[in-house]
Amino acid sequence: SGDIDHFLSGIDRNQIRELAKALHQYKKVAAFGSVYSETVAMDFMYEIAGVGKYIKTNIYDVKQEQYINEADEDTLIIIFSNSGQYIYENGMKPLDQSRSFVRKTKGRIALITSNREAASDPSVSYPVLYFTTRVQNHPFIERIIAQMIVEEFKRIGGGRSTGP
Fold this sequence. Notes:
By secondary structure, the chain is α/β, with parallel strands linked by helices. The chain has helices at residues 2-10, 13-25, 36-49, 62-70, 101-104, 116-119, 138-157, and strands at 28-33, 75-80, 108-113, 124-129.
């Protein structure tokens, strides 16, 4: 549990608070991840629904990419990506290798990651940076963060959604 203690001491509660506020503000919200993080995104969708906020998720495939491509300024896209690589990926289709589809979206990006460089990428509006010494712990840590966001969302004030 040294990793958990280390992680909890390193997390910036303000980042959690800002993301929880954004969850109240945006009507359209989606949570995505790939591999293990995908299950965290799904769990997060159910947890946040439990406090009255309904968001979307899709399994990691062209649907996620399509959603991100079609998102507008009123959309918040929460990405769970320990490595941060998700925001640099060129998507499922080989065309347009110039720049990642995620960083081109009109939507607002929240990135939950242990990659400092990815967290400070200009395309990321709501970074939540954490530290982990053992990579295999990251799904567990992402779940703790998801829980912290839900708790903060509740603390700020129930499930009433106000538009941006």
